[in-house]
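Weekly modeling sync, notes
Attendees: S.R. (lead), two postdocs, one rotation student

Agenda item 3: backlog of single-chain predictions. S.R. asked that every request posted to the team notebook include the full sequence so nobody has to chase files. The rotation student volunteered to paste the first one in as an example of the format we agreed on. Action items at the bottom.

Example entry:
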Amino acid sequence: MQRDQLCDPACGSGNFLTETYIQLRKLENKILSELLRNQAVLALGDEYTPVKVSLKQFHGIEINDFAVNVANTALWIAELQANAEAQSIVYSTIKDLPLEDSANIVQGNALQLDWTEIVDPSKCDYIIGNPPFSGYSRLSEDQKDDRLRIMGKAGGKLDYVACWFKLSAEYMKGNQIQAALVATNSITQGQQVEPLWKPLFDDGLFINFAHRTFVWASESQNAANVHVVIVGFSYDEWKTKTLFTYKRDDLIEVEHPENINAYLAPAPNVFVTKRSKPLGKVPSMAQGFKPADGQNLILSAEEYDQLVSKEPESKKWIRRFSMGQEFIKGQRRYCLWLVDTTLQDLQRYPEVLKRVRACREWRLQQVKTGDAYKLADTPHLLRPTSKFKDDAYIGVPKVSSERRHYIPMGFVTNGMIPGDQLYFVPTDSLYVFGILMSRVHNAWMRAVGGRLKSDYRYANTIIYNTLVWPDVNEAERAEIEVAGQGILDAREEYPEATLEDLYDPDDAWMYPKLVAAHHKLDAAVERAYGLPVGCDEKDIVKHLFDLYAKAAGES
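Predicted structure, as returned to the notebook:
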């Protein structure tokens, strides 16, 4: 078997293999054109050909038999087209028929086959492909069995694509093979990073180049776009690494960092793991209430108006309620907050009691092992309230647009009940607010947090609890508090604007006082961390990873 073999272990209809073959043949034709300079090639035998790139160097694995046939056909067509172009360069006939030269496309489940039997790893140079984009929560039972066998119990939160990274690494070990796979971006974010990448890094694997999150658009009708990354890895560390970041469709930022870690950050190989408590001496952040009420205790603005018009005194039991998006958009939503009520109280308000009873009936109809069913005996409560006190808190939306430079957060002092898409920090501290609204905290969130498609997906255990807070003196703390108040004051200058309006980057020019206030806060926080004011975000991230590595080791 000749060297320079290439394998796509999830080849589908052969798009990656075909395009790779076409580009290699184009490159070879250019070389032949330069070497021959319009001279004809004299064939010395039937077997001679100036073309060295062969379909026999291309291998693939595909589970669908129809796709296997399509892949083989596409590669044959690509060969015929490339041969025709080559003949015009070498002025010699290149034998096309019979179709003896063919790729090795094997039908089967790549996660159950022995790759070494398909192509000898000592003869293989490259692994490429885009394995299935199946999220961990959407796997079939067979797929879960595949993942368990390959990744073990620690892989229970990993996307299906992670299996190909693990098997690729096992196949590559001890050989000079380079791999590059397209994958769902979640394997480089949040809770999926450590169980996939730590064992691979511990085994000596390196990420040599990567493309950060971008949209993998499908041309098929009604197909959803997928947000993906490309990760190039091997056991041979490249001297020059390359990291691509897609700022816009027409702009790509290229970096050459010393190291690319598993978060695709230009920083040391540190793995950020979930923590139940913050690293710093700060209040804990909790998730808001998941109602599980069958929409009986939650009220839209219209339902609120109707209930209050029928039973005006019930207003004392109604609170504002907000998920993350209502918080950002300033939309009205309400809930019945009946923590201290009795049955006798409720009997005076038939409309309220009707909703409570409907909630109980809904909960009794749910799965008996689920949370909703267990709450049937307290149908007047959204959830147990031990974590929520009727005091001021900082609201932190769980999901926020990636377009924003800062996740919009704010103090809540009107008793509004946070839903499960809104985290809350029970504090009125301007210092805590200032750190959370700073560029430093948002850089950490972008580096280690998860994503919903490409939107930021906040998690208290993986972002807030792992943030290393600065060791500040009284003057530095006071400066951050003043700057935090400056953010609130600047927002008051635009009373008609919602947080959605204020933090739309395209409209920042409309709110110059808020922009200036954020610059002042960012400078104060960066000084507190010992960072140069206005430094690049990649420098902030590297500094935070360094601090985390030290703090996590000491905790």
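Discussion: group reviewed the output briefly. The CA atoms of residues 347 and 353 lie 6 Å apart.
Action items: rotation student to repeat for the remaining queue; S.R. to check formatting next week.
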